[in-house]
Design a protein that fits this description.
The protein has two domains: 89 residues, no CATH class; 347 residues, Alkaline Phosphatase, subunit A, CATH 3.40.720. It has eleven helices and 18 strands. The strands form six sheets. The chain has an eight-stranded mixed sheet, sandwiched between helices. Strands 2-3 form a two-stranded antiparallel sheet. The termini are far apart. The protein has 452 residues and is of the alpha/beta class. Strand 17 and strand 18 form a beta hairpin. Helix 1 runs parallel beside helix 5, helix 1 runs antiparallel to helix 6 and helix 9 runs parallel beside helix 10.
Length: 452
C-alpha cells in the first residue's frame, strides 16, 4: 500500500478545497449549538423485516391463546417489565433501557415503512412500489452531517453492511436532496470476514501518489469547464465526496477505527462471530473514534420464511418457526450482541454519551392467523433506546391488552426522529431545504419524558 505524506495530501486536496462552492442547501436553518448535546453519537441498529413486539419486549401473558406468544414472559431487572424468555441476557440490562411501546404509523408494506423508519418522515403513500427519489427525505445520518458535521477528521455518518431492499432499494439510505457530500460513508464488506478492510482506506498497488495527483488535476479541469455550464449541486457533490476519500486515505485515525482485527479474540467472541455481531463491535469502535452516527442494517432482505438468514419477516411459528431458537438466529443473536454492546459501551465510559436505538419498520399482528403466523402490523410496536441521555429502566407509552393499538402516548417515527436529534444537540425545529426550495422540518415532537 502506498502511503501519502501530509505534504502530498495538502497538494492533492488543497485546490479542490479552495475552489469549493457551497450548494444552495446551506441556506437551511442551522440546528446545532442551541441545545445541550446529551449524545455525542448514535448507534442505530435497524432490524429490517419487522420484529414482533408481542414476542420480544411487549409480552402479553394474560392475552387469549390466539394472541399470546408461545414463548414465556420472564421478569427483568426492572420491576413490572417482562421480556421474552429467549432474551435472558437482555432481562439483566433492562435497567439501562427505555422502551417505547406505543410506536405507530399506517404503512403496512416493508418499503414505505422502512423508509419511514430510517428517515423519520411519512412517505406519500403506503405503496410497496415506492422508489428512491430526490423528492424523498434523507437518512438520519445525512441530516446530522448537514446540520452538525464532524470536525474531528472522522466521517460524520457511516452505514453498513447491507443495502436494504424488498424488491427495489428502500429510499432513505443516503443524503437524497441534501447532496452527495452528505452521504454516509457506506460499505458492503463483511466485518466478520478474515480479510475485512475498506478499499477506500488503501491505495491500489498500481496507484502512486503522483498518479493520484494527475487524476485530481484532470478532475479539476473537468470541474472548471462544467461549472461554466451551471454544474449541478449533485455533480459538485462528487468533488466533496472525492475530497473526503483523499482525506480518509491520509488518516491513521480512520484506518485504526476500522481495524477490527486488532480487537482481542475474546471480545470478538463476546459479540458473536457473525456479520451482525461483528458489525455491532465495529459500531462501538467507530463511535469510540468519534463517528457521530452509525447505522447497522441487520440484513439486506426482509427474510420471508427462510431459516438462519434474512431479516425479521419470518411469518410463522410452524416449521419455519418465528425466531427459531435452535438456529441461534434472530432472538439468540440479539441476546448476544445487544447486551454485549451495552456492556462494552458502559465499561468504556461511552454509554452515557452514546444513544443506542434498536427497532424495525413495524411490528406484528397480535392475533396469530390460521397459518400459525403473525403478519405486518404498524399500528403498534416497540422501539428500544439505551444510553445517550434517555431514562434507564423506563417504559414510555403503552399498548392495549393485546398489543394491538397504543393505549397511551402514541409515538410516530417523526417524534422519535425529533427526540433523536434533540439528544444530539440539534434543534428538532430546524429546517432543511429541498431541491424545490421548500423549507422542511427534520422531525415531529420531542419526547421529553424519555430524557433523563
Amino acid at each position: 500500500m502506498n502511503r501519502l505524506t501530509r505534504r502530498h495530501a495538502i497538494k492533492i486536496g488543497g485546490a479542490g478545497m479552495l475552489g469549493l462552492t457551497l450548494p444552495k442547501l446551506l441556506r437551511a436553518e442551522r440546528g446545532a449549538g442551541s441545545i445541550k448535546a446529551r449524545a455525542k453519537s448514535v448507534i442505530f441498529l435497524f432490524q429490517w423485516g419487522g420484529p414482533s413486539q408481542i414476542d420480544t419486549f411487549d409480552m402479553k401473558p394474560n392475552a387469549p391463546n390466539t394472541v399470546r406468544s408461545p414463548y414465556q414472559a420472564i421478569d427483568s431487572s426492572v420491576p413490572g417489565v417482562q421480556v421474552c424468555e429467549h432474551l435472558p441476557e437482555m432481562t439483566k440490562r433492562m435497567d439501562r433501557v427505555c422502551l417505547i411501546r406505543s410506536m405507530t404509523h399506517r404503512m403496512n408494506n416493508h418499503a414505505p415503512a422502512g423508509y419511514y423508519a430510517i428517515s423519520g418522515h411519512e412517505p406519500p403513500a403506503d405503496d410497496q412500489r415506492l422508489r428512491d427519489s430526490l423528492d424523498l427525505y434523507p437518512a438520519y445520518g445525512s441530516v446530522v452531517d448537514h446540520l452538525a458535521p464532524n470536525t474531528n477528521g472522522m466521517p460524520t455518518s457511516v452505514a453498513y453492511p447491507h443495502v436494504i431492499r424488498d424488491g427495489s432499494i428502500v429510499p432513505g439510505q443516503h443524503a437524497s436532496f441534501l447532496g452527495k457530500r452528505h452521504d454516509p460513508l457506506f460499505f458492503l464488506e463483511d466485518p466478520n470476514a478474515s480479510d475485512f478492510k475498506l478499499p477506500e482506506l488503501s491505495l491500489p498497488r498500481n496507484l502512486s501518489v503522483d498518479r493520484l495527483q494527475r487524476r485530481r488535476d484532470v478532475q479539476q479541469l473537468i470541474d472548471r469547464q462544467a461549472r461554466l455550464l451551471d454544474f449541478s449541486a449533485d455533480a459538485r457533490g462528487f468533488d466533496d465526496y472525492y475530497q473526503r476519500a483523499i482525506l480518509m486515505l491520509t488518516s491513521d485515525r480512520v484506518r485504526k477505527a476500522f481495524d477490527i482485527s486488532s480487537e482481542p479474540d475474546a471480545v470478538r467472541e463476546r459479540y458473536g462471530r457473525t456479520t451482525y455481531g461483528q458489525s455491532c463491535l465495529l459500531a462501538r469502535r467507530l463511535v469510540e473514534a468519534g463517528v457521530k452516527f452509525v447505522t447497522v442494517y441487520y440484513s439486506n432482505s426482509i427474510g420471508g420464511r427462510k431459516i438462519g438468514e434474512g431479516g425479521w419477516d419470518t411469518h410463522g411459528f410452524d416449521n419455519t418457526r418465528m425466531y427459531k431458537i435452535v438456529d441461534k438466529y434472530q432472538l439468540p443473536m440479539t441476546d448476544q450482541t445487544l447486551p454485549t454492546l451495552l456492556d462494552e459501551l458502559d465499561e468504556r465510559g461511552l454509554l452515557d454519551e452514546t444513544l443506542v436505538v434498536w427497532m424495525g419498520e413495524f411490528g406484528r399482528t397480535p392475533k396469530i392467523n390460521k397459518n400459525e403466523s403473525r403478519d405486518h402490523w404498524p399500528q403498534c410496536y416497540t422501539a428500544l433506546l439505551a444510553g445517550g441521555g434517555v431514562k434507564g429502566g423506563h417504559v414510555y407509552g403503552s399498548s392495549d391488552s393485546q398489543a394491538m393499538y397504543p393505549d397511551e402516548h402514541p409515538v410516530k417515527p417523526d417524534d422519535l426522529a425529533a427526540t433523536l436529534f434533540y439528544l444530539m444537540g440539534i434543534d428538532p425545529a430546524a429546517k432543511i431545504i429541498d431541491r424545490h426550495d421548500r423549507r422542511l422540518p427534520i422531525g415531529g415532537r420531542t419526547l421529553y419524558d424519555v430524557i433523563a
